[in-house]
Write a structure and sequence with these properties.
heterodimer; A: mainly alpha; B: about 375 residues; mainly alpha; 12 helices; globular
Amino acid sequence: MRLRSDPRGTVERAIGLVVLVALAVGPAIFNDYWVNTILTQMLIFGIAAASLIFLSAYGAMTSLAQTALMGISAYLLGNMVTQGGAGGESKGLTLGWDPTLGLVLAVVLTTAIGVAFGAVAARSFGIYFLMLTLTYGVIANYFFGQVTQFGGFSPIAGVDRYTPGFIGKIVGHPDKLYYIAFGVALAVYLAIRYLIRTPFGLSLQGVRDDPVRMSSLGYNVPLHRALAFGFASFVAALSGVLFVWWQGQIAPGNIGLASTIELLVMAVIGGLTRIEGAWVGAFAFIVINNYVRDVELPLVGGSFNTIIGLIFLVIVIVSPDGLMGIWDRLWRSLGGRGGGTPDSASVTRQAAPEASIP
Amino acid sequence: MLRNGDFRHLAPRLVAAALVLFAILYVLVISNPPPADGSFGDWRTTTYGSAFDDPGSFLLILLDAVTFAGLLFIVASGFSLIFGLMRVVNMAHGSFYLLAGYIAYEVQQKMTGVGGFAIAGTDVSTWEWVLPVLVAAAIVSVVGVVVQQTLLRWNQGQDLRQALLTIAVSVIVADQVIAHFPRSGTVQIGGGQAVSLTWPGWTERRIDLQVWNIEYSLARLVMLALGVSVGIGLWAWLYRTRTGKVIRAGVDDPQMTSALGLNIQKTFAIAFAIGAALAALGAAVGSSQGNIASGQDAQWLLNALVVVIVGGMGSLLGAAAGALLYAIVLTFSAAYLPITSDNCCSQYSIVLTFVLIAIVLAFRPQGIFGRAG
């Protein structure tokens, strides 16, 4: 029995419950296009955005490598499971391994690559970390574009035809993929919520707030950061597998600078401070993407990218903590309880540690 | 004597040092030329063999690396200057590069009046190269200052927010450039096809180096000379003029500098303009030597990032060292990775960029000449 009333928590839980129920019965209430395109895509990119927000909110590590890690796992899967043959399937190594083995290896290897990436970047903070992870992303993009054995410039196609036996066929069963994505998204959300309450999660937040003090308390700061990056890579790897099942193919263009920025835009629109923001941002981005794509701007012209750039600009100017930041501020102005996350996670306060020392 | 735990810190550095040593030895002595029958070889087989087998090719590749470093330095020094002064990571640097490259191309097309993708070098006078560069630099500087004044001035100190703002700018600028350029010499306006600026005619010859009968492109030497001039110019500006003194004071302590009555905001704007102008100069040189096309914004953002991550942010010397190391790795990995089959191994050269970053950061997380926090 709670003694103190918590209207905000109640409202948030109620909204969460409504969203969960709506998603659980999604195929019954939304039309096919919405379920198969918008919602499935939202769940998949939400998982990747959640890995970005996890690192940013709880590790003060804003990573631009998450799209690349998605792509690495999708490429690994594509290379290991496809058997070669017609169309783009002849691209890549076409090893034709068992899909279950391929799935496990793709996720495990991507996580290992993520730990290595994290180890190299573990001693870089703030804006340096952002730059370093951006170079990872661009390097991964060029790697898959240049190395013809792993696919080269054109896509590896038909990956969605090779799904593990315990999942069954997903080609022609889009609702199945929707529910898989829903289940994985829910599991990822709960896992992150759990992880940040464990001793590791708490010391990670200590590292975020004051790496120097944590280091003098005897905590291994680089190790915490590398492991957190490894966990985020694992989450990104899951979304990469789902992505390649959803799209059926993977190409270097899927992990280019534009895609990297798109994932960042999703995370920023949602808000870099709260995990829920990942799916909020992904939903907002994908809806805008679907319904604004063909609008041509008057006077200046240009494509959808100009519009998304302008939206991104406005969000960062008006509310750098995104829609969740607006939500938090709304509650604060109503006199409710303060924001649910510590201030140091906020975009406006995140800086390299040396910059914060006067 | 090793204390407990020392090995953990030492091990990555030992591995890194061993890798560097092996790479140097591989290029100098280990590698072999390909078999005479034209077949592929083993892990020791490279296109030219070692530096001892073919010193001429080695020297040419070294020259390619050093001259390319000149171009890298021009672009990256602008990026580094802006960061060093304002702690702004200008993610739009690559988009500025793209914009400047196309503007210079358009101006040169108008000036020469020849038209078409390829103007013969003999039709281009020095002035017809310099003026397009100046126009591009001026326009891109104005764009840079507008971005700085409207988007970055009011949120100084918020690193991440400023980086996000410049990312938004980079998306918009790159998209607009691709929508509207190139305008001349193509069937349709826009699309971001590859076009090329043309070096002035007098650079189109080869210089006899008087050693191993090597001739080397004068244009590439001009590229190096421009890089060195930019370096000397920036050094003289920062260390020998009053503006430079104010800038360096602003880097060390912005509040104290403005408390002394110096207009730090004006200095910031000047530095941002110069930084953007250097992207423009780099784009002109880069598109004269190669071309300018959509997608190069990402390429040059990566190049600038790698140079400053390796060399150290905000340091002139660091930008030079980073440019040289990165250029050496890029050029030599393209020429000295073993050839064991059709698919191996020069296409893996991009991996060595990552290895370079990892090795440097293993020793110095701030980059070679970066100041510790």
